[in-house]
Amino acid sequence: MEIEIRKYLYDIQQACQRIEEFLAGQDFGSYQGNIMLKSAVERQCIIVGEALSQVLKRSPDLNSQISEAGQIVDFRNVIVHGYASISDAVVWDILQTKLSVLANEVSTLLNCN
């Protein structure tokens, strides 16, 4: 795997870890009521989506090794371009159900190559 792709995967890994750290001990109510927390989490989601977009441009075969890769990139685009319509409940659900899967898949890719 080329070094540039590894760098983007590392960025995804780091962003996932930051989100997990930011959300430690939080529940939906505390997330929803804390604009600084939401902004920080959304920023890391943007990094994840952009880095993944760059990975897929450089190595399209990795699409099959990252669950819902297209949806992750699309989610980034919604945060950036459709920020006025972001649902806290949808973001929270994605973070609770999908983040650990992504983090594990990226760690596997980094450790295998």
Explain the layout of strands and helices.
Elements: H1 3-23, H2 28-32, H3 35-58, H4 69-81, H5 88-97, H6 99-112
Structural features, described:
This protein is an all-alpha fold and 113 residues long. It has one domain. 77% of the residues lie in helices and 0% in strands. The protein contains six helices and no strands. Helix 1 packs antiparallel against helix 6 and helix 3 packs across helix 4. The longest helix has 24 residues. The radius of gyration is 14 Å and the shape is globular. It starts with a helix and ends with a helix. The model has no long low-confidence stretch (mean pLDDT 94).
**Domain count:** 1
Got a strand count? 0
Q: Which stretches are low in confidence, meaning pLDDT under 50 for 5 or more residues running?
A: none
Task: Give the radius of gyration.
Answer: 14 Å
Strand content: under 5%
Number of DSSP helical runs? 6
Helical content class: over 70%
Instruction: Report the sheet with the most strands, covering strand number, pairing sense and barrel closure.
Output: none
Distance between the termini: 6 Å
Element pattern in H and E: HHHHHH
Q: Structural class, from secondary structure content?
A: mainly alpha
